[in-house]
Amino acid sequence: MGRLIVVSNRVNAPTGAGEETVGGLAMALSAALREYSGLWFGWSGQTVPEFTGELHTQTVAGVTTATVDLEDADYDEYYNGYANKTLWPLFHYRSDLTAFDRAYGAGYERVNRRFAETLRPLIQRGDLIWIHDYHLIPIARELRRLGVTNKIGFFLHIPWPAHQLMTTLPGHRQLVEAMFEFDLVGFQTAEYRHAFEEYVLTEAGGDMPTEGHLRAFGRTVQIGAYPIGIDAENFARLRGSPRARRMHDIVGASTIFRQLIVGVDRLDYSKGLEERFLAFERFLADNPDLRRDVLMLQIAPVSREGVEAYQEIRSRLDALSGRINGEYSDIDTSPIRYVNRNYRRDELAGIYSVARVGLVTPLRDGMNLVAKEYVAAQDPADPGVLVLSRFAGAAGQLKEALLVNPNSPEEVADALKHALAMSRGERTRRWEALFDSVQRCDVTAWRDDFVGALKAVGEPAAMAS
């Protein structure tokens, strides 16, 4: 093959600042780009008054990036609009928060066309093109219109919604039709793949000529489930790094005589943070003898502050954490510590290693890598317990976690009590099975499985007219 070209909304290649500041996904993709002398293309994160298409290229740590600025209208309509106000809530089963606006859809199409036009001169014969996530569903169609015949793969990092929910999206058929311009479409889980199949077979009149292939709109596309992982060995090593040890000591000193329950999530309504706080409140109400023995630390960095729904959830969480602390605090203890800031990966490893319980309860999640990071950061001799939403993609792999319905405060509260009382022997048995899964299905295996499948896929066969 030629080079590997990775295309994503934002480019997150190494900065030269050290691995501890770079996410596992970026590290895995960067390694693949170095192996194949590839290129990472996407938005720079900057806006300009008028789109120029000017490329900004650089090579850092052996990875070449090419980024382009968006104009202000693009940011409002494509990013804040269609991506974050339409597709994100709909694909996370929040139709009540989904905004349908023609201007958003027009901006989404425009930016995908501009990305394709800017990327086209960089593509060489034999290059593999790997598109990432819901921001860029139409880009393969735009590249095909420009004459690109290279193999193009697409991976959806978030859930694919059920058939009936998908049909509430204006233009849903055109969006799905654009996905048939890819050669390979990957989903996080078999559940999401099956939801896509159901839509194509039911709504688009398609069929499945062979296992793993769908035919509709005059084209055939290969589909598959490729659960993403983390760099498990690296994350486990981070637990012994200086920053991790220091954070372990800081958090350990502040929770002396108490057991720590930790949650780490971007501030987003899909993460079930309000439901989590209410479940912890139920736990405190039901277990007065344990109130002084536990501390819940919720780390929730703020995101998408330009979207009203995110402003509202932040206000509600501020009020809810204040109410719980007001009700259940004592002169020397408070049950919730709620923090709106980012931490480095090595610092998170130190925090996870202190926590007796990792509380990961999204209402709906494509995979959820925090669950896997928590497992990787545990001390094998005295591991903590993972309490995990059954609606996270990770639940299909991490079956030895305590799986819960995040919508039920009683069920989550009961799981917390179970986790805190669990014997070391049971904790160890569960953790060993969890860590084995996290190691085997790591981010490198995910990357190699997808790229290998894309390399092997045949040219899509057109249906006879």
Write the layout of secondary structure elements.
Blueprint: E1 4-10, H1 24-35, E2 39-48, E3 55-60, E4 63-71, H2 72-91, H3 102-119, E5 128-132, H4 139-145, E6 152-155, H5 163-166, H6 172-179, E7 184-187, H7 190-203, E8 213-216, E9 219-225, H8 232-238, H9 242-254, E10 259-264, H10 273-286, E11 294-299, H11 308-328, E12 336-339, H12 345-354, E13 357-360, H13 369-376, E14 385-389, E15 402-404, H14 409-421, H15 424-440, H16 443-456
Parallel strand pairs: 1-2, 1-5, 2-4, 5-6, 6-7, 7-9, 10-11, 10-13, 11-12, 13-14, 14-15
Antiparallel strand pairs: 3-4, 8-9
Describe this structure in words.
The chain is an alpha/beta fold. The protein has 2 domains: 4-229 and 444-456, Rossmann fold, CATH 3.40.50; 232-440, Glycogen Phosphorylase B (Rossmann fold, 3-Layer(aba) Sandwich), CATH 3.40.50. Helices cover 43% and strands 18% of the residues. It has 16 helices and 15 strands. It has helices spanning 24-35, 72-91, 102-119, 139-145, 163-166, 172-179, 190-203, 232-238, 242-254, 273-286, 308-328, 345-354, 369-376, 409-421, 424-440, 443-456; strands spanning 4-10, 39-48, 55-60, 63-71, 128-132, 152-155, 184-187, 213-216, 219-225, 259-264, 294-299, 336-339, 357-360, 385-389, 402-404. The strands form 2 sheets. A 9-stranded mixed beta sheet has the order 3-4-2-1-5-6-7-9-8, with helices on both faces. Strands 12-11-10-13-14-15 form a 6-stranded parallel beta sheet, with helices on both faces. Helix 13 links the parallel strand 13 and strand 14. Helix 9 (242-254) packs across helix 12 (345-354). The longest helix is centred in the last third of the chain and has 21 residues, at 308-328. The protein is globular, with a radius of gyration of 23 Å. The protein starts with a strand and ends in a 9-residue tail after the last helix.
